[in-house]
Amino acid sequence: MYLMNFFVYVIGSKKNPKRTYVGWTNNIKKRIDKHNKGLGAKFTRGRRWKLIYSETLKSQKAAMKREYQLKKDTKFRSIIRSKI
Question: Exposure winner among 8, 11, 25, 59, fewest CB in 10 A?
Fold first, then answer.
């Protein structure tokens, strides 16, 4: 049985590092490529993005729950942004 990992990630705009986006996926490289090609979430279109943080989780449910937590945790995102 093959277990798939899921990832929660934070990407930052290359032009404006204060602009961040949190998401989840099962393939980070492919997902960031989609964001950079304008095929990601509506918020990310028209910008170039770079990965600034990621976590590996064992299930889609856990990834979605963690994504929700990170989206609400403005202090954590501020700390991540300051390290860019």
Answer: 59
Question: Do residues 11 and 35 make contact, with C-beta atoms less than 8 angstroms apart?
Answer: yes
Six-digit token string for 37: 């090609």
Residue type, 9: Y
Helix (H, G, I), strand (E, B) or coil at 35: helix
Q: How many Cβ atoms sit within 10 Å of the Cβ of residue 67?
A: 21
Rounded distance between C-alpha atoms, residue 38 and residue 67, angstroms: 21
Q: What is the pTM of this model?
A: 0.88
pLDDT in tens, 53-82: 999 999 999 999 999 999 999 899 888 888
Between CA 34 and CA 21 the distance in angstroms is 13
Fold of the domain built from segment(s) 6-82: GIY-YIG endonuclease (3.40.1440)
Please tell me what DSSP assigns to residue 73: -
